[in-house]
Amino acid sequence: MSAPPFPLPSTLQELAGVAVRDLARDFGTPTYVYDAAGITERVARLRAFDVVRYAQKANSNLAVLDLVRRAGALVDAVSAGEIHRALAAGWAASGEPSPIVYTADLFDREALELVLEHGLAVNCGSPDMIDQYGERVDGGEITLRVNPGFGHGHSRKTNTGGPHSKHGIWHEQLEACVARAAHYDLRVTGLHVHIGSGVDMRHLAQVAEACCELAVRTGPGLQSISAGGGLPTRYREGDPEPDIAAYFAIWDGVRERLKRGLGHPVRLEIEPGRFLVAESGWLVTEVRAVKRTSQHTFVLVDAGFNVLARPVLYGAYHPMALVPADADPRPLRDVVVAGPLCESGDIFTQDEGGLVRTQPLPEARVGDLLVIGGAGAYGAVMASNYNSKPLPAEVLLRAGKAQLVRARQTLEDLVRGEIIP
């Protein structure tokens, strides 16, 4: 089993044993490409935890969900659509531990009806969720997502803890929410704490300590704790691999302390999303124009923020590699890589706040391909039809073969469902 290439070389020809030019020829550009072996290996790396629960918002393609399920992971859903996807991918509605958990800060009406119809487990992120669920069921169990009062992340926009975050029940309201649940004969049996995406190991350790303190306050009925997600993902050369063994040891210590205090075992879950899929996904795009201003050389490709929004949202960095159309030697150039959209912000090489930066790449020419790495997470799931661009194809690489797992949208698809009265 070969790991996905990291860091990306300045030029490459293959992804997981498949020629990039063959992928472009067979599926067009832009196209998302996922490596099955890389995703499966990431699930296996977390096996020390009692439950690996995939946060499918990172990548919810049915083929990816099926792959993760077969690797032994359970799943998290944050919407009616994600509930539907989880069921379609083969997870059962009930079991122990719960195969599907609905985690959110609110119930929209459709999601609540699906949760009730299928008897799904619920992780409540607001007091109102407790009321809305409790009024419709005859007792049972829930878990609570708690905001511990602090947060962290690679961007302010991915920080999910602290007083400025909408996520979770504020820690000072924990006891009141436990009592609120008891009013509906609901037992609080689990606690979920997550402070942000892309946090470092030091902050993840702080979460574990906070969870321990909150778990004691939750009461003797606690059966499980969830470390949430947020495991670091490598994007730049020099980014370290997270020390999973050390991280597990921290949480296992918390679990053992709770076991001694409560007098019964406590299940330890982890909820990765980006960690499982980001590095095993790429966006293959074609160079369609190269032009210059007094300050920059722009390499314009046929993918924009409509298919990879992270740079425009967070100033996120993504590694890139050129796939030259010929064997000519190519000197390195500092370039700005941008897309086709009618927006000044449609630039892949930018820092948070929209500051344009350059990236060294071999001299690009029209007809070359460009591979953007780290696109397995928050690529396809955030894609849109902005500028009436069809959604790209999605392709899974397995054992040296490429399989189409989502067809490219057609122009007819773009207007399907629209009505001229």
* Number of helices, where a helix is a run of at least 4 consecutive DSSP H or I residues: 12
Overall residue-averaged pLDDT value: 93
Shape: globular
Instruction: Note the gap between the termini.
Output: 56 Å
- Which structural class should the secondary elements be placed in? alpha/beta
Portion of residues within helices: 25-40%
User: How much of the polypeptide forms β-strand, as a percent range?
Assistant: 15-25%
Unreliable runs: 153-160
Structural Rg: 23 Å
Strand count, sense and barrel status of the largest sheet are: 9 strands, mixed
Question: Based on DSSP secondary structure assignment, what is the total number of beta strands?
Answer: 22
Task: Please explain how this structure is put together.
Helices cover 27% and strands 24% of the residues. It contains twelve helices and 22 strands. Strands 3, 13, 14, 15, 16, 19, 20, 21 and 22 form a nine-stranded mixed sheet that branches. Strands 4-5-6-7-8-10-11-12 form an eight-stranded parallel barrel, surrounded by five helices. A two-stranded antiparallel sheet has the order 1-2. Helix 8 (201-218) packs parallel to helix 9. The radius of gyration is 23 Å and the shape is globular.
